[in-house]
């Protein structure tokens, strides 16, 4: 097999990069952002080897690559937010827990106060009963 001349190699690489760019665009169109990212990354790798990382020829591909990253992150963050919201809806809120704890403490205080009152009344009755027996 004969090696391609240097000029033809650049054209072949450019065609391959164009192939990956088209595959990346297809990925964007069908909202398969991982596939789009992978294809744009391959195209950027090929083109940057030829034109350098800051070559003007890479501008559109960098934009498309960034767009695919952005769209993928939007989906991930939407999923994360929906999971957080779902979890918050299932769990009682901190405020309601705090109010329940406060209510429980108030109920305990009230029942303790009632017990003290009942004991005082019993002691008073016992004392009155003891005085009534001795005075007769």
Q: Can I get a quick summary?
A:
The protein is mostly helical and 136 residues long. The chain has helices at residues 6-29, 33-51, 59-90, 94-135.
- The protein's oligomeric status is single chain
Question: What is the N-to-C order of secondary-structure elements (H for helix, E for strand)?
Answer: HHHH
Helix proportion range: over 70%
Give the distance, in angstroms, between the N- and C-terminal Cα atoms.
133 Å
Structural class: mainly alpha
Helix count equals 4
Average of per-residue pLDDT values: 80
Approximate shape: rod-shaped
Rg value: 39 Å
Per DSSP E runs of 2 or more residues, the count of β-strands stands at: 0
Sheet bearing the most strands, described?
A: none
Q: How much of the residues is beta strand, in percent?
A: under 5%
- Spans of at least 5 consecutive residues whose pLDDT stays below 50 are none
How would you explain this protein's 3D organization?
The chain is mainly alpha-helical and 136 residues long. 86% of the residues lie in helices and 0% in strands. It is built from four helices and no strands. The protein has helices at 6-29, 33-51, 59-90, 94-135. Helix 1 (6-29) runs parallel beside helix 3. The longest helix is centred in the last third of the chain and has 42 residues, at 94-135. It is rod-shaped.
